[in-house]
Fold:
Amino acid sequence: MKLILLVIGKTTDKHVQALIDDYTKRLSHYVPFALDVIPELRNTKALTPEQQKVQEAELIRKQLQAGDHVVLLDEHGAERRSVVFAEWLGKRMAAGPRRIVFIVGGPYGFDDSIHALAAEEVSLSQMTFSHQLIRVLFTEQLYRACTILRGEPYHHE
Structure:
């Protein structure tokens, strides 16, 4: 079982990257985890938002494997409290897919073809966050979920 966070574009802020690295290291004590980066598209000013989503979808599909449990991080997805998210994650991991792949879309979201591939969609908030910050927020929530599942004292309620 491996958890993967698939994102478009590299993290450009070294402080943000340091936080991501910290939570990635912490996560490695619980479950195999990888943050996989798809390079940003070039010359996007010449593309419509729909064309950009289609091209990003092609790159996303190339990263997926048969049997992946695909979860989109999307503003229209289901919101969950941390404890509920941990329970949900525990059930998904116990269900036995080789990989659970969480995907952060590009600036215009996901192409319909990627929505069709997804088993589920999760929202971290009704607020909008930068794609850089989502990486930190979500890796922290994965770490928090793992500590909740193990009954460790990181999360307080």
